[in-house]
Please model this.
Amino acid sequence: MTAAAPEPKANMGRPVPRYDAVVKVTGRATYGSDMPLDNPAYAFLVTSAIARGRIDGFDLAGANRVRGVIDIVTHENAPKLKESKLFSNGGYAGTTIQPLKSADISHDGEIIAVVIAESYEAAREAANRVKVSYAAATPSATFDSPGTTTAAAKGQSSQFKEDPKVGDFAKGFNEAEVKLTASYDTPTQHHNPMELFSTSCAWMGDNLVIYEPSQYVYGLKNGVAEQLGIDADKVRVVNPYVGGGFGSRGSMTPRTAIIAGIAKRLNRPIKLVPTRDQGFTIATYRAETRHEIKLGASRDGKLVALRHEGAEVSSRADPYCVGGTKTTTRLYACPNVDSLVSIVRADRNTPGFMRSPPEVPYLFALESAMDELAVKLNMDPVELRRINDTTNEPIGGKPYTSRSLMACFDEAAKAFGWAQRSAAPKSMSDGDWLIGYGCAATCYPTQMAPAAARVRLQRDGRTRVEIAGHEIGTGAYTILAQTAAERLGVPLEKVAVFVGDSDLPPGPVAGGSNSTASTCSAVMMVCDQVRQRLLKAVMPNKSLTDKAKETIGLGQTPATKAAKSSEAIDLEKAFDALGTGLIEEYGEWKPEGAPMDSLRAMHAGHARLVGGASMKDKIAYAFGAEFVEVRINRFTHEIRAPRLVGAFAAGRIMNPRTARSQLMGGLIWGMSSALLEATEIDQRTARYVNDNFADYLVPVNADVPGVEVILLSEQDDHINPAGAKGLGELANVGTNAAICNAIYHATGQRIRKLPVRLENIEV
Amino acid sequence: MAVQALSAAATANSPLTQANAQPLAGGTTLIDLMKLDVMRPAAIVDINPLDQRWSAIDPGGENLRLGALAKMSDVAAHDEIQRHYPVIANSLKLAASAQLRNMATLGGNVMQRTRCSYFRDVSYRNCNKRSPGSGCAAMDGVNRMHAVLGTSDQCIATYPGDFAQALIALDATVEVTGRSGIRRLPFAELHKAPGSTPEIETTLQSGELISAFVIPGRWPRSVYLKARDRQSYEFALSSAAVALDVQDGTIRDARIALGGVATVPWRARETEALLKGQKFDDGLAQRAADAAFADAKGRQHNSFKIALGKRVVARALQQAVTMEI
Ligand SMILES: Cc1cc2nc3c(=O)[nH]c(=O)nc-3n(C[C@H](O)[C@H](O)[C@H](O)COP(=O)(O)OP(=O)(O)OC[C@H]3O[C@@H](n4cnc5c(N)ncnc54)[C@H](O)[C@@H]3O)c2cc1C
Ligand code: SF4
Model:
């Protein structure tokens, strides 16, 4: 075993290499814009240079003179589209701002024209020559800008359901022996997945095929159909590979229906590849947030009062909100809890999901505050977490289905060498560098959604698994193949997996880290249907008890409990008995507690996620602990994080290799978020300024010399048949706080605003 | 647009004399800016076919001669340059990425244009450098990366490169080839501070090419210190090129240039004057560093560069004094 393929512990699958490894490293994986089209025309977007106001007029003369220009689409001649509702309001869209509908402009970089030409270069050249005159109004950029409005999230956003509270916070805080009040800020951030926000649309008569990186092909298919006013069965979305999503492709953006409409009108396939900077404004992003945390504790470290107040920016049009207090109010034992989330409306594009939407900003605040409290108490921050660890969440008293938080702290602390830390700030250094150690808890809700799958098995063991899941780089192909191979007892090499196509049985959105739990549970269920047919064939007279169903498998590579067969079935004999060459089974899996209509909703492209803190009688989260070493140069104040160590427990680990990659990527992103990533907004114009990869910094290899991921063994029989907790969004949650806590240790300076840059350090 | 090739520079009918013709070397600045619609040359002249002397690295004799078409990576990796001119090797090694250094040339490097986000995004109307007289969006906008030295009320854009600081510190001469032959000028006279004409960045005339850089003497006691947001592949927030001649703890000669903080490659003459003939200690380093920023002007987001720049200069001096040669 290598570091990349950790030795599986109890309740872990094998670290098999990625199903799609070879096609990816040889460049043969076909992403959306790689899909061949028959005689395509090319689209290039023109986006607004103001954030608020109106378009007075266009001068298209220069653009029309560019050789190869076919059409220039503006609000004056755009295809008419039906309105799209927000995903949280029964729709599919990530924004209700519909460009090209009128002369009005409601945010920076809104699509105001689409140039269609014979080549990409001609389209770009003509787009550069489109002249726009604006009647600009003064926009409100962000918090504190004149003209913004603020209101409680509860009531205006159907996405945000509760401001959790319990006990009497005011009394608890008043009477607390030790008190802390602190405010924290997180910046605007953009996902910047490597694959751009491309869209290709091709019509065959009344049928539309869309090639687009999407984290939800069923949502996109239904959403585009609704906007075009056509039957959803006529729309197919295909994306066998998605070059990163991170939440940016979970809901529909306006571009898709626009391109589809133009392709229809021109009767020609159209390919759009927007630029990197257009990606900042034609899709969603993580909005900036503000927090005030109040903690009250007894001298011995027991929390007696906790209040978390959060504020988030959204667009004028839509009340998007992440509202992470549902997690932060439940993480530690505390009798008196209060919370409030509000939304500040500004002239911005609508924000949206970004990897661990609620937990990233909200846990940064709480886990920083916990460290500050530990300092006040003169206590090791790990011990403070131990004292407040709990088996039941404090708001409703529901039990965690499993919780390995402290085991993660202990394992990670050991691997990191936490014991070598001298507690006093500014007490460790190495030559020019001050050294700081810091840690924080991380967690992410365990979520599931309905999913359907089709499995075909042939006499020679060849197996085909079909589910409209998504390979966004996480390893979906690999673990689905493993799941089917294990469940059916066929060799892994014989399993072919098909995802990323809305003609396959519906899978859930690849969001909220529900994919593994949901798609694997569905595939397991359908594999069992296949097994039952085989069993009936070979043992026609035996009445199959549940026990027998559980214990009889097909042999070969038993790994899951169910596949540990005492009686292996001879496939050839079974097929001969059945008198058939192929068995095909389809099934729909619904997680426990999913609403009645959730299977119907699944087909209509609405993912009804259940789990986390929203279940009736229990609460399910994955946990972890993260330790970082930061080094701060005494002279330049440059901040580096040479060591990131995380230990994580997430139920059954389907594949330690792909799990490690996810968690490692999360730790690196967490570091990036703490030290590098921020979208800068020009306050006067409400425009994004550093909207490109040279100015919006993400780490390079030299920034991450040491990343260590430890996977803990954990079994949880109360979540889903796969026994898996999502872990794709687990690791980047705690890192922001861990880094700031380490910076405090290195310098004695508490920094409560992200990202931390060298100018924020005073030593 | 057709790309024309150039095989001899000093000719009367050079394609470079066409109006708004741009030479193409590695293309890592020019092509980027054309894609962004910031640069709209009427003609592109590929200068890579020029003869081998244009890319030669010649460390022989008293002077180091570097051809304008020499690749950043080749110069950085050159043994004798690492030995006798560490400031040159390191300024190149710490710049851009390995891939870019393999493409980019020294001539193109010193001619690279500012990274000011408002300059590089044509949807911002107000940029005096891009469209003279239109104003400056950076002045009261997002200006963390902008200059604190050599600014004017027309433009505060930072000169972004690293290598030019080494050249300016070492009194390099730049050799320019035009229609009528070769002329030489001090490298310090190549770049022009923005003043009231930020659109004019250098003193090169139409049709002229940089053919080589000539560096007199050897400077084994020299360092390039670069402070930046990430560990690699990032422009300087502040940098210092320092070359010293030290004997028995006394500084006989000092050359100092600053990057990341000024509108042009910036020679810190006040600092050099303070150091010359003095016994080195930390106090002196501090005073010398302060002198470099005596006239600095910060704006909303970049004022930190003044304090940072001073610390970078002081530290670079300490490193140069204590380095083993
Ligand atoms: C992402 C990124 C990061 C970077 N980071 C750094 C960094 O950290 N430090 C740093 O110093 N640089 C950095 N650079 C800039 C890079 O070093 C320059 O782009 C490169 O050196 C330019 O050289 P080139 O040969 O590619 O020039 P080209 O792009 O070919 O030319 C640049 C300009 O110079 C003109 N020109 C070229 N050769 C001559 C000549 N002989 N005479 C007259 N004019 C000429 C061209 O017409 C053009 O206007 C970075 C660039 C990028 C894209
Ligand atoms: S600083 Fe200079 S380059 Fe930047 S916007 Fe102002 S004028 Fe333009």
In short: Residues 448-611 of chain A form a domain with the Aldehyde Oxidoreductase; domain 4 fold (CATH 3.30.365.10). The mean pLDDT of chain A is 95. DSSP finds 18 helices and 28 strands in chain A. The first strand of chain A starts at residue 41 and ends at 47.
